[in-house]
Design goal:
- The chain has about 110 residues and is α+β, with helices and mostly antiparallel strands.
- The protein has three helices and five strands, in the order E-H-H-E-H-E-E-E.
- It has helices at about 20-35, 40-45, 65-70, and strands at about 5-15, 50-60, 80-85, 90, 100-110.
- Helix 3 (about 65-70) links the parallel strand 2 (about 50-60) and strand 3 (about 80-85).
- The termini are close together.
- Keywords: GTP-binding, Nucleotide-binding.
- InterPro entries: CHP02058, Tubulin/FtsZ-like_C.
């Protein structure tokens, strides 16, 4: 039986100076994580290691995100990370120092009867 999505959390993060897409993405993931509590999983006695965690990161330059660092930042589950074009770069007209905004969607799937 295919796993069913039981949780979807969204977050946003930024790097205001330096144009670090991974830093902005990590902040977006942490923002999403801090919006959720896994009390339902505890109540159902679900082993956190069994969770299938799908992370999607949106940034303007997906190739500049270290997906392994994103994956390693998640505390539980079998994590997959996909980085896509999205987010926002806000250019400073006086300097070559964009503010990078990243978005994150974290979906948790469980194999339920």
């Amino acid at each position: 039986m295919p796993a069913k999505r039981v949780i979807l959390e969204l977050g946003a993060g930024n790097d205001l100076h330096g144009g670090d897409y991974t830093k902005a993405a990590l902040r977006a993931v942490q923002d999403a994580l801090h919006h959720s509590s896994l009390s339902m999983l505890r109540a159902l006695r679900v082993d956190p290691k069994s969770m299938l965690v799908d992370v999607t990161i949106g940034v303007q330059q997906p190739g500049k995100v270290d997906a392994e660092r994103i994956r390693a930042s998640l505390p539980h589950g079998q994590v997959t990370v996909q980085v896509v074009k999205g987010g926002l770069d806000v250019m400073n007209p006086e300097q070559d120092d964009p503010a990078v905004l990243a978005t994150a969607a974290i979906a948790v799937r469980l194999e339920l009867p």
